[in-house]
């Protein structure tokens, strides 16, 4: 089998399964694991996969800057946001970090209860401007216009002085084995800090990010408490997360 033919078949498996394991590929194709690793390196170079220990995952989707991402999958993100809102109680202190889904979360927070929201995203503060009972605190730092977020040392130092009841965590990729990942190292660093400062970690995520990986690790998948997903996610994928102690909520009333 030519290298190109083997790589095409690996891409097909990635598309079907979301991941490949190097040892299994070597056995199936009758080649060494070194040959498979070279294939995966080439596919990663071309942007078809993200190499991880023992194999590869699909790369996390990158929809560009915050303005472009906010216009994607609007209805799906609103459904995720409404599910997040059910976890917000009167008097809660909530971290909402920067993400296009989390802008929708801010809009869906209950307006009839008192809350305190801490965010590093000006767009989230603006989305809460008509929530009269919500106290809004915006973390400082260096503003990254692509991420729509204040990042860096100042944001982290300010976050370390606050303890939140809930963190609504944005993620670029979510995988049971690899964990929660982000595209930006500073963004990942701040997210890790917010996790340390929060009691309940909630991750609302669109289906196209499940089983994918971005370059910078935020935390293990098991570090999160609640994963909120779209109702089209397979039961196999859901069971992968529930098996490690994560509560999985779906956007529709039916539960896994």
Q: What does this entry look like structurally?
A:
- With 256 residues, the protein is of the alpha/beta class.
- Helices cover 37% and strands 25% of the residues.
- It has 10 helices and 16 strands.
- Helix 10 links the parallel strand 15 (226-229) and strand 16 (247-250).
- The model has no long low-confidence stretch (mean pLDDT 90).
Cα gyration radius (Å): 19 Å
- Proportion of residues in β-strands: 25-35%
Oligomer: single chain
Give the tally of β-strands: 16
Structural class: alpha/beta
Characterize the overall form. Answer: elongated
Could you tell me the mean pLDDT?
90
Distance between the ends: 42 Å
Following the backbone from N to C, one meets helices and strands in this order, namely HEHHEEHHEHEHEEEHEEEHEEEEHE
Strand order of the main beta sheet, please? 6-5-4-9-12-15-16
Main beta sheet:
7 strands, parallel
Secondary structure: helix percent: 25-40%
Stretches with pLDDT under 50, minimum 5 residues: none
Write the layout of secondary structure elements.
Elements: H1 3-17, E1 19-21, H2 22-29, H3 33-45, E2 50-52, E3 55-59, H4 66-70, H5 74-85, E4 92-96, H6 100-108, E5 115-119, H7 122-127, E6 134-138, E7 142-144, E8 149-151, H8 153-159, E9 164-168, E10 173-175, E11 179-182, H9 185-196, E12 198-204, E13 212-213, E14 216-219, E15 226-229, H10 235-242, E16 247-250
Parallel strand pairs: 3-13, 4-5, 4-9, 5-6, 9-12, 12-15, 15-16
Antiparallel strand pairs: 1-3, 2-3, 7-8, 10-11, 11-14
Helix pairs in contact: 2-3, 5-6
């Amino acid at each position: 089998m030519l290298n190109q033919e083997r790589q095409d078949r690996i891409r097909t498996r990635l598309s079907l399964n979301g991941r490949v394991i190097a040892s299994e590929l070597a056995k199936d194709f009758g080649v060494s694991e070194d040959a498979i690793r070279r294939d995966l390196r080439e596919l990663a170079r071309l942007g078809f996969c993200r190499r991880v220990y023992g194999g590869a995952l699909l790369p996390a989707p990158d929809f560009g800057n915050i303005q472009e991402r906010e216009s994607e999958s609007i209805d799906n993100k609103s459904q995720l946001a409404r599910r997040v809102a059910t976890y917000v109680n009167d008097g809660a202190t909530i971290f909402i970090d920067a993400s296009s889904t989390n802008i929708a979360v801010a809009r869906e927070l209950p307006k009839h209860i008192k809350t305190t929201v801490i965010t590093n995203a000006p767009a989230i503060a603006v989305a809460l401007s008509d929530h009269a009972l919500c106290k809004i605190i915006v973390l400082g730092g260096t503003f990254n216009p692509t991420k729509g977020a204040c990042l860096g040392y100042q944001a982290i130092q300010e976050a370390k002085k606050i303890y939140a009841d809930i963190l609504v965590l944005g993620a670029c990729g979510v995988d049971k084995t690899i964990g929660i990942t982000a595209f930006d190292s500073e963004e990942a660093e701040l997210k890790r800090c917010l996790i340390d400062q929060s009691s309940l970690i909630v991750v609302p995520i669109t289906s196209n990010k499940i089983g994918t990986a971005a370059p910078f690790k935020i935390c293990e998948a098991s570090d999160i408490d609640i994963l909120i997903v779209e109702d089209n996610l397979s039961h196999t994928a859901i069971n992968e997360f529930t098996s490690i102690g994560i509560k999985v909520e779906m956007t529709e009333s039916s539960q896994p």
